[in-house]
Batch of 2 targets.
Target 1
Amino acid sequence: MAAKTDESSPAVSSRKSSTPAPSSGRHQLRPVKFDYADSFACTYIVSVVAASIAELATYPLDLTKTRLQIQGEGAAHSAGKSNMQYRGMVATAFGIAREEGALKLWQGVTPALYRHVVYSGVRICSYDLMRKEFTQNGTQALPVWKSALCGVTAGAVAQWLASPADLVKVQIQMEGRRRLMGEPPRVHSAGHAFRQIVQRGGIKGLWKGSIPNVQRAALVNLGDLTTYDTIKHLIMDRLKMPDCHTVHVLASVCAGFVAAIMGTPADVVKTRIMNQPTDENGRGLLYRGSVDCLRQTVAKEGFVALYKGFLPCWIRMAPWSLTFWLSFEQIRKMIGASGY
């Protein structure tokens, strides 16, 4: 009996030692899937898809906001014509639909989508990379000052790279208004606008208005990325809530509101500089730079003019932020990635 026990012991031991092998093999596959879903490339693609969904859903509000911000700047430069045709967000939106057609509410959406291929992918991925540098795995809450630093940097870099597409978008958005005022069209399509900009100012002309553009993006992402990240972790930690849709909704609404407050003044300056006519050398005819535009706007229209278009800006940012973050988080969950 002792011999049998001794002979069976190696067999039992052998069977026990061989049992975990298949399980070990299965477990080895899991990190591969996790790494893929949380990889830089996958995060980049998901952020672009989510941003495109949000852009298409809220683009008419962006067009309305741009038209409102341009109102008033022509009054100081033209005695016979007035740019004050529309008085508010609702009147502007209905005026565009009535006088130019409902589809004109999406005029310029193509370069806006091109912009997000660069802007949204870079800002989300760069923020995530910087956040991981400050924490062990990127899932812990950052101190507010570190999160703010990451948000400002990510937004500034992303917008500088995407500035040419933003310039084309703004110029196309204003073409319908110019034609209604009896002025000759400056551009006919995104490709034509791109060629015109390069012909007048060279490659450097594609970054006209990039300084206020970058300033605005830095402030907006300070509000959007920093607020979303901070509020999301705050709700989850303090209220002991899981990473769910309710948390995403609350965090994104707060992010949109703070982003609108931070970014509207810089957005007004950016829009006016990018929309101004230029000479054959690509120099602006109305403003010498962002500081000059800021000074003229406050001097001629008052400080309140810096928040012209705030309501549509916030009304757009709130649903844009909500749509983007819900889409972004849901797609990541579907492919097996961790919460952002």
Note: Residues 1-34, 75-84 have pLDDT under 50 and may be disordered.
Target 2
Amino acid sequence: MCQNVGTWGRRTWNKKSAGLSYCCGLQNTLSLSIITKNSILRTVPRCVPVLYRRAHCISSLREIAREEIGKIKDSGTWKSERVITSKQGSLITVVGHQQLEILNFCSNNYLGLASHPHIIAAAQAALQKYGAGLSSVRFICGTQDIHKELEHKIANFHGRDDAILYPSCFDANAGIFEVLLTDRDAVFSDELNHASIIDGLRLCKARKHRYLHLNMSDLEQRLREEKNARLKLIVTDGVFSMDGDIAPLDKICELGDKYNALVFVDEAHATGFFGKTGRGTEEYHNIIGKVDIINSTLGKAMGGASGGYTTGPKELIDLLRQRGRPYLFSNSLPPPVVAAGIKAFDIVLNSNNLAERLRHNTKRFRDAMTKAGFTIGGSDHPICPVMLYEERLASVFADEMLARGIYVIGFSYPVVPNGKTRIRVQLSTSHSDEDIDKAVNVFVEVGKKLDVIS
């Protein structure tokens, strides 16, 4: 037995040695004896049981992760990250393919502003004047005049009272529902809404109704059945990012009026370019001002850096500043990102040329791909899903495209439902007619090689 017998310390069972580990209790004793059923094996430092426990936990973690990774790879849904070595744009360079200038057809850079010289100049000027960041949340010492300028510009762009900035649109969606809705309220969400909406709704206590995708009859039935809610809120994406299909926002607003329900729309894939002047799905349906709450992003068409926002009634925005957890507990948007957002709105407000060019590019690609025999999801939107349906096929197809100088990505579960795998093509204003024609020709070549088209 341990010679320094006194008050025994913590005791743990060591499965490997089939014995007990005792830490001696004397203050000056910094040793530990490993005792088996028959004898003492050795004396080791007292910290060893902690190290054994930690090693065991890490080993278990690694094994669990390996098992899950194996399942993902076996199903053909493993997502590899390609490394870009240039600015974002229609032409990029990619690690492993440096000898080629790659045509990029899978970016959210709808208006080509991510590397626009005016955007870069605005960001550089803000970096010099305001620094790299605020090292603070907004309500402590993280609000600069440019943050307020951007919020005012966003509210004016959408014709709303006020706006509030977040680090991302994901945060905007995560922050609003638990503030707005209680267990006395009811929310009605399209079954294919973005993951950030789904996660945000999980945080609130409202009664939750999930209606069939774009199905107004199902939505109306659920609204009709919910009779005692303090607030009713219909929640939808304006444009659904995986399918490129468009919410019937005009009909949703009609149902909102009929059943006294508020309407919320996520315009991440619409702001700046969809609708005649880029005001999004509201403008596309000619119902500007009908939607009650809009969430959107600066990270796609509007400069492509980061940042999201909520815009709507002033009272709601004031409440979110007081209780919105992603707003209260996240650092302010960095000044260069804010300045890039301001400049992006200035560009969109000054001209419709970029949005008009994007509509031209969208029609050119959709028409040519459909004529070639591909099934293209959605309609009238630069998100153009090329449907393939088989998980492994999508990955192989994307690799074949990259080898020929076209950058696209296969989308599979859990990003899209099982059996709905596709190559999601996204058009940009920065694509030329020649770029689009080349992409279509490569799609045809690879499609025939892999027996997708004849």
Note: The CA atoms of residues 19 and 36 lie 4 Å apart.
